Every structure is written in structure tokens, then in C-alpha cells.
Amino acid sequence: MRIPDHFIRVIPLPRRVRGVTVPNDDGTFSIYINALYGDSDRRRTLEHELEHLARDHFYAAAPIAAQEAEANGAPVPGEGNVPSAPRRIRAYRGTAGLEKYLRSIGALENTIEQLGKPW
Question: What is the pLDDT of residues 30-50, one digit of tens each?
């Protein structure tokens, strides 16, 4: 499995968001890791996000439950475990969509302003 080119930024995010990956227009990805967590949690989150990239989850139509389980190293849920209305992994083209999502879950203004700034 090949992991596409990516940029990692550690920024404060809402506590319930450990990390998020955003596809960029040039085919690279930006991975945002929550600065509010400790080193080991940030490392696990980064490994999880990289697993999504390695498995091409951003281009797959599989249900989010299956993709999350796969990124966590667990067996992919069987057909009986898949929700009737499968959700998809959130993908954002640039930071505008991500900004809207972060605002919807109560992200702080200074977090929004930091998106896209290299860390």
C-alpha cells in the first residue's frame, strides 16, 4: 500500500475530534491532529489517518463503519453489521468545507484561523 503525499499539522480542535484528513486540490492530503491530546494519542490518531490514506478510503464507497474498523486494524464488519443507511467518510476539497464542518461542531474561531498554516 502506498501512502499519498501528505502534510501533518497539529492544531487545537474540539475535544471530541482527534484528527481529520482533508484532500487537497493537487492530490496531496492535509492531516490535522488535535493538539489537546498527548503524544501517544496523537501518534495513534496519525497512524489511523495514514491507514485511511493507505487504503484509499477517500475514494471508496464502502460504509464509514467498515472503513473506520479497517483503519483501526479490526476485521471489516460483515454485511449484517452495516447500517441500513451507510454514511461516508467526510472529505473536504480545501479548507472551506472543513471550516464549515468545524463550525457546525463548535470549533473555536482561533482553530479555524489556524487551518492551512504550517505547524
Answer: 999 999 999 999 999 999 999
Return the DSSP state at 84.
Answer: S
CA–CA distance from 22 to each of 7, 50, 66, 97, 119 (Å)? 10, 12, 19, 9, 16
Half-sphere exposure of 90 (CA within 13 A, CB side): 15
Q: How far apart are CA 64 and CA 82, in angstroms?
A: 9
Nearest to 28 by CA among 58, 67, 60, 71: 58
User: In the chain, what are the domain boundaries?
Assistant: 6-114
Question: β-pairing, 19-23 with 29-34?
Answer: antiparallel
- Is the entire prediction scored with pTM above 0.85? no
Mean pLDDT confidence for 69-90: 56
